[in-house]
Amino acid sequence: MDLNTKEVIRNLQLWGGGLALLTIGGIVYSISKGIMRYKKYHRKFDSNAIEEVEGRVAEVVTDSGKFEQTRGVVLVVDTNRKGIIHVHLGPEWFLLHQRKHFKPGDMVIARGSLIEGKGEEFMVAASVSRGNEVLVLRNEKGEPYWNRWMRE
Questions:
Q1: Span 6-28, mean pLDDT?
Q2: Cα radius of gyration (the chain)
Q3: CA 132, 134, 139, 145 torsion: positive or negative?
Q4: End-to-end Cα, the chain, rounded Å
Q5: Which of 33, 38, 53, 72 has a 20 to 30 A CA-CA distance from 150?
């Protein structure tokens, strides 16, 4: 096989261009995954308006995220005062590494920021307690501990 210099340069340009496109595509994909995760778990949290709801866990739901990093855990809590409240805990990957896990029937007290969204009220939890056990998810400013955990 006899290739002249012009053909070699042309082939290198084609391969290099394709490689550059793949690299750019990978970067865009990674950024979009990070943005999706940020939007989902950095919901508006008003640390000056913390409320408590008490009730029985009716269901523990892992909401369906396309990627493992975007799946979250939600407690469906049946309260006497407000009816059913969805208490958003945080990303599944973070909660799987915690010692405290919840199950239907548990009596809990959830502290967090109640938010109105899409016609219904839900809570972004700062902490959830069951008896003497407390699962702390956010600091006093409302910053999620999984962000700090990822950086360390």
A1: 69
A2: 23
A3: positive
A4: 55
A5: 53
